[in-house]
Amino acid sequence: MKDSEAKTCAGMVRGRKGGGYRVEREILDEERLEELSQRLDISQTRAPLAYRLKNSLRCSVSSLKRRVVGCLPVLYWLPRYSIWDYGMPDLVSGISVGIMHLPQGMAYSLLASLPPVFGLYTSFYPALVYFFFGSSRHISIGTFTVLSIMVGSVVERLAPDANFLIVNGTNATVEVKVTERDLYRVQVAAATTVLAGLIQVILGLVQFGFVGTYLSEPLVRGYTSSAAAHAVVAQLKYIFGVSPTRFSGPLSLVYTLVDVCMLLPSTHLPTLLISSVSITVLIVAKELNNRFRKKLPVPIPVELIVIVVGTLISYYTHLNKNYEISVVGEIPSGLQPPTVPQTSVFSEVVVDAFALAIVGYAISISLGKTFALKHGYKVDSNQELVALGLSNAVGGFFQCYSVCASMSRSLVQETTGGKTQMAGVASAVIVLVTVLKLGPLFQDLPKAVLAAVVFVNLKGMFKQYSDILTLWRTSKIDLLVWLVTWVSTVLFNLDMGLGASIGFALLTVIFRTQRPRYSVLGHLPGTELYLDMETHTQVREVPGITIFRSSATIYFANAELYLEALKQKSGLDITKMITYKRRQEAKESGADSLHEEELSWKERENSTVFVMPETPHNSWVYLKGIDPETSTLGSMVSLGSLGKWTWDIHSIILDISPANFIDTVAIKTLRNIFHDFGEIDVDIYIAGCQTPVVEQLEQGGFFTDISKERLFTTVHDAVLYCLNHRGAGTSSRYETTVVRFKDYYKHETLKCLNALAALLYLIHSYQRIWHMTLC
């Protein structure tokens, strides 16, 4: 490269921002850029398969230790664990979280339609498994509201009360065989949990941890808000002491709510009184906890206190016998032996298991990454998927149901000083002691108290309804995703609602790529920048050059729309212009004229018409419905009285810098643009083409008949080349005069003129016939 071309001077100059720069270099097209940068071929950037296999075998032994540590993160941090630094904070944090596990485990088991003791099992086994395989140091694994509701919907669908009815021979009443029903429900929940865990493990092993990214924040918040609605409706029967009919399938929430409202006159007043008092006490105590949280070393275990007090009152006043208040009932002490889940129900719950796997992982990884970012460590998304899957799979063998991280418990574990996963072990010990020794003490606990605990814990989800106002101000599309997710989940239940909401969210992405912002760029004087002319008042159009940009990548779904937008923005209807040019060339060469069918009446119905006049001073525009070959001068309107709008375009630059990939349909569209506009002497150039896109153009055969000299590094390079090559004011060989009838005539006016001309013609014809008759 010559010294003058290689010269680069960068001098700082004073300006409003305190500095500036100036660069002098040659104009770079893609061919010249590859020559200077020595870009490698695609085959050179990828190592041969044999080399990769050999390198993999060579590194397999040395990486075995790292892989084992990656699968078992406990082997990395446990040898470095300092009891003096982390022991006491983890112990205090674990005890605080364990105390929260007790009421939440029993309360959320009601949401899962299972006996309360299985909520305690679910708070114990998965936490121990996560201790070995989890990479997050601050999340608390166990029962969670949303997953409990999802499990409950599966359990009630496959094991409804109607399948376990028995007629009492004494008084001829219909009763439910509660023991058999609960046993089968536990088996269904365990099988669903094992299947969900296996799905998570498989997804984690195949490095599918990114699946959680498809659940956007508006979708997750809308989903959890609708799940809170399901939870509230599910607890109404315990709060009011009524027995509504169980419904399943679409609109089951609506039917249940209507049934509960019909049963309100038969509300059990003692149960309602206990529920109201428990809710009031919990709300007031939690507000005091929040107000004085900075002064308290650990949060006051309000839920546990309410449960203990409610149990004591129920035990000494015999609420169940005297007032017929429903209580928890028998709680077996000790742990249950592992059992193999019923694989026969796998086919019936596979969809629900997949939904549980995705939702549980999305909630856990979002919390894990939040705490990891705050405390400066990394969470492996794939390892988290495996850890959560093993927690569910192993827990299912011990009659647990699906688990994930809980926001409330995780916040307590983090704020009380928890440092590592040892806090989870401490909380599991608290649950174990309760299951082994203290479980039977809670047999007289009213279910209304547990329902109150669930109801109050949904406060955070109720606050998410404020997202509607926030999203209305920030993003209407995200608001639409939130609302569609909420409505679909409420109406179609949690499993179908999740599928519908994910599908709709993906459709919004496709729609936004199909309808991007198309703009014509202008030059900002004194810079090399080119900005949208519609949104910037100080940019100037480059004479003879149209710079067209789409805000999205070009692919099969929007390639045709891209071409139509280019025609509209440039003002060049390429189809009509090519047709007219060929007609003119045929006339000039003395060949036969083209058939009239080539200009169909459908084409002439467009409101924008293109004419290539022979001289600049004799410009005419065709009226709609009038054949330019047979019409007379009286059927044309002169442009002199209307004002002529002339486009002197000799070059079009396609700025595709937003594109990150391109497919075969888009490549074909670009080739057609190059060829078609070339027929009317308008040169097409591409600017801002990224290296992956260039490689895809090469693979698609784009450069077989199109030179790489048509591709430029920046828009400014392309503009300078066009100005040097075609000039600033040079118009193409065929001048394009465009008249838009909608700016001068209304459609109805043209129809009236055509009708009037036809009427005059008929009158004139009748006059001639009448005159000939008289003669």
UniProtKB/TrEMBL annotation:
Subcellular location: Membrane
TM spans (from-to): 110-133, 139-159, 188-210, 253-284, 296-316, 353-373, 420-438, 482-511
GO MF annotations in UniProt: secondary active sulfate transmembrane transporter activity
PROSITE patterns for the chain: SLC26A (PS01130), STAS (PS50801)
Topological relation to the membrane, as annotated: Multi-pass membrane protein
GO cellular component: membrane
Residues annotated as domain STAS: 535-722
Record keywords, A-Z: Membrane, Transmembrane, Transmembrane helix
SUPFAM superfamilies with a match to the protein in the record: SpoIIaa-like
Gene3D superfamilies given in the database record: STAS domain
Protein known as: Solute carrier family 26 member 6
Organism encoding this protein: Astyanax mexicanus (Blind cave fish)
